[in-house]
Amino acid sequence: MREGCLGSPWITQRTAPRRLPEAPGAYVLLIRLGRRLSIELPRLGTPVLEPGWYAYCGSAHGPGGIRARVLRHMRKDKKVRWHVDRLTIAAREVRAATFLDRSECDLVARLLEAGFTVPVAGFGSTDCENCPAHLLRRPQIG
Question: How do residues 6-21 score in pLDDT, each as one tens digit?
Fold first, then answer.
């Protein structure tokens, strides 16, 4: 899985510090859960996510841009601030793809077109009027 369906190479936790841009933009986290995960989410209940690959689409426009945000997501030792933190803390693996010329909503739309599905309506998109969720589940292959 060297390149994502969005045409950008996946950046691993090992290569992230030198490959992530400090510019503002959007990103996709590819998160691999190795076991079932029950997560308590304010306003969304307690969904159970099955093992597999998930894609989380986000944006970073603050200090440090994409680099600062994605490096934070890849850390295990962090205060839970966003819904996706519950997944990244439990993940077996987290990869990222970055996009300086797209919005997180554009990335969600493209992944849905590619066959990704919505595991939890509203996850990561409580402030978004366009997307059913910013967390998507990768289709099973084979």
Answer: 778 899 999 999 999 9
Contact yes or no for 57/107 (Cβ under 8 A):
yes
Chain centroid to CA 104: 10
Q: How far apart are CA 127 and CA 104, in angstroms?
A: 12
* DSSP notation for 80-139: --SHHHHHHHH-SEEEEEEESS--HHHHHHHHHHTT-B-SSTTTT-TT-SS-S-SEEEPP
CA atoms within 13 A on the CB side of 115: 7
| Cα–Cα distance measured from residue 110 to residue 134, given in angstroms and rounded to the nearest whole number | 12
The burial class, CB within 10 Å (0-12 / 13-18 / 19+), for 89 is middle
User: Could you tell me the pTM of the whole model?
Assistant: 0.92
Task: Indicate if the pLDDT at residue 142 is higher than 70.
Answer: no
Measured between its terminal Cα atoms, the distance across the chain in Å is: 14
Rounded Cα distance between 125 and 64, Å, is: 22
Whether the CB-CB separation of 58 and 87 falls below 8 Å is answered with no
